[in-house]
Amino acid sequence: MSVIEVQDLRKSYDDVKAVDGVSFTVEVGEVFGMLGPNGAGKTTTVEILEGLRPRDSGAVRVLDLDPGREAGDLKRKIGVQLQQVSLYPRLRVAEVIELFASFYGRAGVADHLLALLGLEERRRAFVKDLSGGQQQRLSVALAMVNDPPVIFLDEPTTGMDPQARRSLWETIEQFKAEGRTVLLTTHYMEEAERLCDRVAVMDHGCIIAMDTPEDLVRTHFAEDAIEFSQRDGLTEADVETLPAVVNASIQGDRVSMFSDDVPASMAALLQLGQERGEPIQNLRLRRATLEDVFLKLTGRTLRD
Amino acid sequence: MRALAQLTLANTREFTRDRAALFWTFAFPLLFVLIFGLVFSRDSAAEYEVGLINQDESPQASVLVDTLEAIDVFDLSRGNLADEIASLEDGDRRAVIAIPSGFGASIDAGTPMSVDIHYDETRQSSQQVVVPVILQAFEVAERTLTRSQPVVRPAFQTLRSERLSTIDFIVPGIVAFSVMNAGVFGAVNIVSLRERRVLRRLQATPVSRLTLVSADLILRMVLVLAQSAILIAVARLVFDIRLDTNAGALAALAGVLVLGGLAFLAIGFFLGSFTKTEQGFFPVAQVVTFPMMFISGVFFPLEFMPDWLRPVINVLPLTHLAEATRQLMIGGATSIPMGISVAAMAAYLVVFVALAVRLFRWE
User: Fold this and answer.
1) Alpha helix stretches (DSSP H) within B147-187
2) Nearest-CA neighbor of A57 among A7, A5, A10, A4?
3) Across B208-227, average pLDDT
């Protein structure tokens, strides 16, 4: 059963096409990721689904409601976390949670949510005294006050340190284990790979690829990546002509090449290095990632 | 209902935990009252230093000296002419009176005698107050000496039992001015919530715009009433200002203050829809409120204002709030009838609420 259905969604601001014909569905219990750089149209898409922005055209259903015409009913049922919200600075953490709970006619949910997000020790702290990561966790807690079956998280781990990020990932995995559906935007490919059942890669208002993270990588890279550092003895052409190499790129002194047959490519590389008198350093072998997929599809990195 | 209560509570907590907001709402207007009160309080009646040199030992000269000494507002100092003139030049005396020798003998002989009154004509109060009082004292002394009776005796019948002092006039003005500030500047809350994207976040919840605005209104109106009550209570305790304490008048006063507060809050919401940031809102609000503080009859009676400005003054909302507040606090006639002031404030409220609703943006 689909929780979210989007068909040919479009939205323009003046002459900028923020969302330019996006279609996808999200099934119950799925963690669906939208991956892309800033300005790709992720936030606009999500805010249309949340009933916060009108769309220009396209069909959208969330929990079988139209976010344009039935926003009131929809808002009662979904959980929302937005980017860059600075909540009431002089309220205490538990007070903010009870405030938001009251909008849904609920009370007494603070203890449970503070425990869930690891904020018990900060329950009496003023919002302005929280760290960036704690404020992010509070804003995820607020998305949970109405115990929603669907949660929209817009770049929830931005500004968090690695440890806080990992702990929020565990929380999101717990949402999934409870059977909730999560739509998540991010520009961290590691986050998408770890959390998402399926990922839509967005750029310039369009979905340019959509699949499970493994299949996205497998479709675009049947190969593994070999990376090494060198002085300047080898050119891209040198590397690409090595046996079984399908694709290579050089950024500074760092060379990446994708290979169908790693032992053959690696042996040839080491031999070529020896012939040229070029030391091959920091040699390592890794799987291709979503970052590589994005670079291949757009010619840009996710942080651009 | 729970949402409205929680939002009102949240606004209240945000306000009471903000020392700057507390200062501007309660301490600042109170400072105004205390400063104006100390300057204009009727208890500290002005005293004028006057030098007196008597160069005549006659009983007639003593009559004049006694008459001058009986004047409460004069603080007489006796010395020699040169020292007193020097003090006058330093500004330590408002006037110096010199009774010449031969004063008594001259009166006995029936010939007029000059008494020198030295004063600094550049000091307004010397010319307008001190000299006329001296002349009056001379007349009283003359009647005593000539044993004549005044033919016309003035008997003042004032409209009110108690004379209205400056502080009685100014306190209602300060109350109105503070209500204006609490209203217009109170709208910064919505601007700030929008700037910090909290409005956007609230839009994603089922809470209605009406609930959101009502929660703000409730706090602002409680603040308007609390602020006014504190101001009036302190002014009454410390300066014994005039106040119509009849329950009906007090209820009407509360009603007028809330109406004015709502009208100014609506004006603030309207101004707030043009500013993106909290920092951008303050100068705009200042430009609107600051001129009104001087020309709307808050500190000076409207009669002092130039005629060409009157049409402008007569439509300003603060004019109507100040006039209505003053009338309800001290009674008597005002320049603008109460009904017109109330209707004007209601009109401002309706027009600016309509504009603010139309211009409202979540982001």
Assistant:
1) 166-186
2) A10
3) 93
**Cα gap B18→B26, rounded to integer Å:** 12
Q: Tell which wins on pLDDT, B246 or A23.
A: A23
Could you tell me which residues of chain B have a Cβ less than 8 Å from any Cβ in chain A? 2-3, 5-7, 9-10, 13-14, 17-18, 196-198, 200-207, 362
Helical segments of B306-337, H only = 310-313, 317-330
d(C-alpha B147, C-alpha B246), whole Å? 51
Instruction: Specify the DSSP class assigned to residue B129.
Output: I
Query: Considering CB atoms only, which of B3, B14, B196 is closest to A103?
Result: B3
Partner-chain contact B206 A76, CB within 8 Å: yes
- DSSP H helices in chain A: 42-49, 71-77, 93-102, 110-116, 132-142, 162-177, 189-195, 213-220, 236-240, 262-276, 290-298
Burial of A5 (0-12, 13-18, 19+ CB in 10 A): middle
B275 and B284 in contact (C-beta within 8 Å)? yes
What is the layout of strands, in order, in the sheet containing A2-13? A16-27, A2-13, A57-62
| Helix axes B317-330 and B166-186, enclosed angle (nearest 10) | 140
Element (H, E) at B351: helix B338-359
Is residue A51 within 8 Å of A27, Cβ to Cβ? no
pLDDT band at A233 (very low <50, low <70, confident <90, very high): confident
Is the full-model pTM beyond 0.80? no
Q: How far is CA A125 from CA A122, A134, B18, B78, B308, in A?
A: 5, 11, 15, 71, 58
A224: β partners:
A259, A287
Q: Which residues of A touch B14 (CB under 8 A)?
A: 88-91
Average pLDDT over residues A134-161: 93
Which of A 90-129 lie inside 8 A of B, CB atoms? 90-91, 95-96, 98-100, 102-105, 107, 126
Minimal CA separation from B281 to chain A, in Å: 18
pLDDT digits (tens, 9 = 90+) for B94-127: 889 999 888 888 888 878 888 889 988 887 777 7
Residue A51, classified by CB atoms within 10 Å of its CB into exposed (0-12), middle (13-18) or buried (19+), is: buried
Return the closest-CA partner of residue B234 out of B171, B177, B297, B293. Answer: B171
- Tell the residue number behind the tokens 């307004």, with chain if given: B124
Q: Alpha-carbon torsion A136, A141, A145, A151, what sign?
A: positive
Q: Work out the burial of residue A239: count CB atoms within 10 Å of its CB; fewer than 13 is exposed, 13-18 middle, 19 or more buried.
A: buried
- How far is Cα B290 from Cα B318, in angstroms, rounded to an integer? 11
User: Which residues, at least 6 apart from B309, have a Cβ–Cβ distance to it below 8 Å?
Assistant: B295
Cα distances from A253 to residues A238, A248, A285, A294, in angstroms, run 15, 13, 17, 22
The closest alpha carbon to A204, from A41, A24, A21, belongs to A41
Angle between helices B131-146 and B59-69 (to 10 degrees): 140
Report pLDDT for B19. Answer: 92
Contact A72 B206 (CB under 8 A): yes
| Residue A198 contacts residue A30 (beta carbons within 8 Å) | yes
